[in-house]
Amino acid sequence: MNRRMVLFMLGRIIMLEAFILMLPAACSLIYKEKSSFAFLITIVIAFAVAFVLSVLNKPRDKTIFAKEGFVIVSLAWICFSAVGALPFVISGEIPSFIDAFFETVSGFTTTGASILTDVESKSHGILFWRSFTHWVGGMGVLVLMMAIFPTDTGRTIHIMRAEMPGPIIGKLVPKIKSTAKILYLIYIVLTATEALFLLLGGMSPFESIVYSLGTAGTGGFGIKSDGLASYTPYQQWVITVFMVIFGINFNLYYLVLTKKVRSALKSEELWFYLTIVATATVLITVNIYDMYGNTSDALRNSAFQVASLISTTGYATADFNLWPTFSKGILFLLMFMGACAGSTAGGLKLSRVILLFKSVRSNLKHMLHTRSVESIRFEGKKVDNATITNVASYFALYMLCIAVILLLLCLEPFDLETNISAAVSCFNNIGPGFSSVGPMSSYAEYSAFAKLVLSCAMLLGRLEIYPMLLMFSPTVWRNRIVRS
User: Could you tell me whether strands 377-378 and 381-382 are parallel, antiparallel, or unpaired per DSSP bridges?
Assistant: First the structure.
């Protein structure tokens, strides 16, 4: 393990966060709020820590192998969240560090689960910071670092693989730095486009920016306790469309930019995703029609919640706790699926779901025709057995993690529906659940222990389990270099 390189990279990451914190500090200064002081103190602390780790600690060997990549990513997200929690605590707007850490982890992991019960009382700077954490975490904090800072380290693909969600991670172009820049350029353009549409629809500049940042990162932090229920149908439809857009694999947008539209439209995962969104929307619309009395409202609320949960954004226009059991069941299943690989969404990812279905179908055919040999194909390419095995192993570990989180939450005085939905929602980076953690409620009533458990669940889900688990493996920390 190249420990000095790990510490050096952590220093660079904390330095990046110091620069990022200047934006909410500026927002606080514009609105002449006391929270600006909290941001300035945090920036000074971050720069001091970064100086010690990255300036006074320059490693001779800057090569990064797979194990360093996993450790750097895991520690980076923990450190990023710990530093990001300081403005909440120093400003006094979230006095408890555990609560602030939960809120910040929820922000960076794009979960959107909140402990706040009175969102409207918070300062503009703090509200901007909450939503901006979604935007930073959506594409990945280390991907952002690679896009901005010079990267003279070796094998940075290991960092990208460890942080980017989905079963398959590839380079758009030969250089990792260029890939990171392309991804962020697409990300920025889409975010700005949504903000413009919301601005034209009557939202204030602050509201349009905050909700665009939250939608882009598929996060879900808002600035009103009733979610988006009080906004106009036009504004809700704009956010619905963009939640679906940000749930699509960003590689497809790159194909469109390079005039390979036909290749993008051939994506099997894309059409599976759009089919699920359309089908779920129609089924729920029919099921809740009697509650709204007209097709327009039923369709708008149905489409919004389907887009919100499958993209793991977590915004709400209605209290779906009050919807019929059939509609709640569909939404619960969408919580597991997530959107496309290579998007900013959380969840299992539809590429894995497709491969699992195809694997089951292949096994059933083999049981009927034992001599038959059928290869599984995905996106027009043959999938090797190792990939199928990895997907199956990940699914088993995925379910095991949810089971362990659920058991730990069952120590709390809440009903089973609350704990199950909290475990699934936080692990899949969604935010709202059912019952006591529904869309119009919060996680404030959970104990400090449960909030730490759920914070770990959010990190495990965002980093897709393995980086966090490997960080605790003694083998990873040995000095012996394993070339991988």
Answer: antiparallel
